[in-house]
Amino acid sequence: MQAADIVQWLKQNPEFFDEFADDLAQIYVPHNHGGHAVSLAERQLLTLRDRNRQLEGRLSELLQFGVENDQISDKLHQLTVDLMKAADLRGILGTLEYHLKERFNVPCMALRLWLPADGHQLMEFSPVGEAIHTLASNLVSPYCGPYVTDEVLDWFEIGAGELKSFAQFALKTGERPFGILVLASQDSERFYPDMGTLYLQRLSELVSAAIRRVIPDHESA
């Protein structure tokens, strides 16, 4: 008989524990955190305590995640309000940069647009290579990780070797992207491949809508 068979039989015959309670009380097993022996009842109590501690730890983690999500939601809301107040593209870009650096603690950002400049003398309208257009088209969801192209690295004033992690997402309000936003950090764990991207996706949609509001009619290149 295998151990699993014994466990299954005990589950099907719970009256066994009542019928042989005295005999079970005489059985001692090794302590799960030490060398001395304890009764089956005490061992079960210790096991339940361990499980309780594990559940408390998990609950604490969930509560912490909830607090962090609330904080992020509040920051995103404040960014939304300020973007709505911005009257033009320059105001939108300044607002975005301020919030990313001061509220989200993202030290570096770069943005490129392939829209009609309409007289704007902004580096965000600097021409980009075909590879960037292809990259934006392929970014169906935000990318987080340690890699960007050399062209993207050139957009940052900080030394390329100092930037360790990146978040990249396309800017679009329809199917075709009209720009790309890249966030960068010296911290290799700031944007990592397995991180959740829900809020980054919302940020992408928010920035896209804000830009489209001040440049409503365009033809993507």
Taking all residues together, what is the mean pLDDT? 83
Q: Which architecture name of the largest domain does CATH use?
A: 2-Layer Sandwich
Q: Quick one: overall form?
A: elongated
Q: So what's the CATH class of the largest domain?
A: Alpha Beta
Number of domains: 2
User: What does the largest sheet look like?
Assistant: 4 strands, antiparallel
How far apart the termini lie comes to: 73 Å
Strand content: 5-15%
Q: Helical residue percent?
A: 40-55%
Total DSSP E strands: 6
Computed over alpha carbons, the radius of gyration is: 28 Å
- The fold-level CATH name of the largest domain is Beta-Lactamase
Order of helices and strands: HHHEEHHEHEHEEH
Q: What's the tally of helices?
A: 8
Task: Please mark out the parts with pLDDT under 50 across 5 or more consecutive residues, or reply none.
Answer: none
Judged by helices, strands and strand pairing, the structural class is alpha+beta
> Can you list the strand order of the major beta sheet?
3-6-5-4
CATH superfamily of the largest domain: GAF domain
Can you give a write-up of this model?
It contains 8 helices and 6 strands, in the order H-H-H-E-E-H-H-E-H-E-H-E-E-H. It is of the alpha+beta class and 221 residues long. The chain has 2 domains: 1-85, no CATH class; 87-214, Beta-Lactamase (2-Layer Sandwich). The strands form 2 sheets. A 4-stranded antiparallel beta sheet has the order 3-6-5-4, sandwiched between helices. Strand 1 (28-30) and strand 2 form a beta hairpin. Helix 4 runs antiparallel to helix 5 (89-102) and helix 4 runs parallel beside helix 8 (198-214). The N and C termini lie far apart (73 Å).
